[in-house]
Structures are given as structure tokens and as C-alpha cells.
């Protein structure tokens, strides 16, 4: 058996976006849809926040309960946050296998 350039022994590693801690981003799980582009998010620091879904994300991808998100906490009101990114189910499982998700949020 000859190893050709098209055969891969390792699994394909895809690049996914991780939270930028310097910008105040963190992982979160979508808890409950509240309507009017708002969502309740359980963040990795243990707090539950009300998240705002910007139009850029709302138009491109739907967010459902149980989705893994990247959220950015507001400086002036720490009980609220903005949703920056949503992971697909496959990406979330992949991150879970690589131990990138904190243990208190790892439901995948």
C-alpha cells in the first residue's frame, strides 16, 4: 500500500475562532430565547447574562438553545453581553474533544 498525497493518516484539523480574552470575550451556552434579538446566555464565569444578537449574526445564522457561543461582556453593564460568534454542533464537539471548552460549560 502506497501513501499518496491524497491519503491522510491524521484527522483533518479545521481552524475555528476562539474567544479573545483581551477583548473581554468568553464562551457561553444559549439558555433561553427571549425574543426581540435577545437571548439568555450562561457564561463560563458562572453568571447568566442577557445577550444581544446583532443584525449581522441574526441574518446569517440562527441561534438555538444549547448552542455554544462566543460572547463579549459589556464594560459598563456586566449583566449584559453581545453575541459575537456561534459554533456549529460539529465545531463544538471538536472543541470539546480538544479540551478547549471550560468544564462547567462542556455539555457536548
UniProtKB/TrEMBL annotation:
It comes from the Archaea. Signal peptide: none annotated. The keyword Protein biosynthesis applies. CDD domains: S1_IF1A. Residues 14-88 form the S1-like domain. InterPro entries: NA-bd_OB-fold (IPR012340), RNA-binding_domain_S1_IF1 (IPR006196), TIF_eIF-1A (IPR001253), TIF_eIF-1A_CS (IPR018104). The keyword Protein biosynthesis applies. GO terms for molecular function: RNA binding; translation initiation factor activity. Keywords: Initiation factor, Protein biosynthesis. Gene3D superfamilies: Nucleic acid-binding proteins. Belongs to the eIF-1A family. Seems to be required for maximal rate of protein biosynthesis. Enhances ribosome dissociation into subunits and stabilizes the binding of the initiator Met-tRNA(I) to 40 S ribosomal subunits. NCBIfam families: eIF-1A (TIGR00523), PRK04012.1-3 (NF003084), PRK04012.1-5 (NF003085). This is Translation initiation factor 1A. The gene is eif1a.
